[in-house]
C-alpha cells in the first residue's frame, strides 16, 4: 500500500501541485474575503480532483481519453461531498461534547487532550463511513452502469479489509498532516495571516502549510489505493498496480 501510494504520488505530481497550491490560495482567499461554508465545498472539489485522477490511474486504461475524465470531476466531487456529510453527522455528535471543554481550556495539556479526543473521534468516523460507502467512489470511476446497490454491496463485503488498511495507511498519514498544520499554526500564532495587509508573505507559515498539504495529498492518494483495491477484490480478486 505505501509503496504503491508513493509511486502514484510521483506519477501524479502535477495533480498534487494543483491540490496544494489550490488549497493555499483558498486559505488566502478565506483570510482576505471570507466565503463561509463555500470554503468547504471548494476544498472538497480541489481534493476530489486529485482523488479522481488517483482512482482513474488505478482503475482505467492508461491509453484512455483523459479529457473525458475532467468532465466527470464534479460528479465525483458531489459523491465525495455526500459521503463527507454522512461522515460529518456522527463526527459532530461525537465531537460536540468536547467543544465546550476546548473553549474553556486554560492549559496546553487540556487543549492537546481535547484536540486528541476530537481527532480520534474523527478518525473513527472516517474509517467506518469510508469503509462502508467508499466503494461508491471507485464504482463511479470504473463501474457506473451497475448503480448504487452493487457498489454498496462491494463495500460491505470488503468492510474489515478496507477498515484495517485505512487505519494503517491514510489515518496515520492524515494524523501527521493534522499535527503538522495544527501544531505549526499554534506555534506561529493562529491569528497570523499568510499575507499581511501589504501582501508580504509569512514564509514559515507557507512552509508549514505546504508540508502539511503534501502529506494530506499522500493520504488522499492512499485512500484511493485502498478503496480501489477493495473494489477490485470484491469484484474479481484483482489488485490495482501502478
From TrEMBL:
<feature type="transmembrane region" description="Helical">
    <location>
        <begin position="12"/>
        <end position="29"/>
    </location>
</feature>
<feature type="transmembrane region" description="Helical">
    <location>
        <begin position="35"/>
        <end position="52"/>
    </location>
</feature>
<keyword id="KW-1133">Transmembrane helix</keyword>
<keyword id="KW-0812">Transmembrane</keyword>
<feature type="transmembrane region" description="Helical">
    <location>
        <begin position="112"/>
        <end position="142"/>
    </location>
</feature>
<feature type="transmembrane region" description="Helical">
    <location>
        <begin position="73"/>
        <end position="100"/>
    </location>
</feature>
<feature type="transmembrane region" description="Helical">
    <location>
        <begin position="163"/>
        <end position="186"/>
    </location>
</feature>
<keyword id="KW-0472">Membrane</keyword>
<feature type="transmembrane region" description="Helical">
    <location>
        <begin position="206"/>
        <end position="227"/>
    </location>
</feature>
<protein>
    <recommendedName>
        <fullName>Glycerophosphoryl diester phosphodiesterase membrane domain-containing protein</fullName>
    </recommendedName>
</protein>
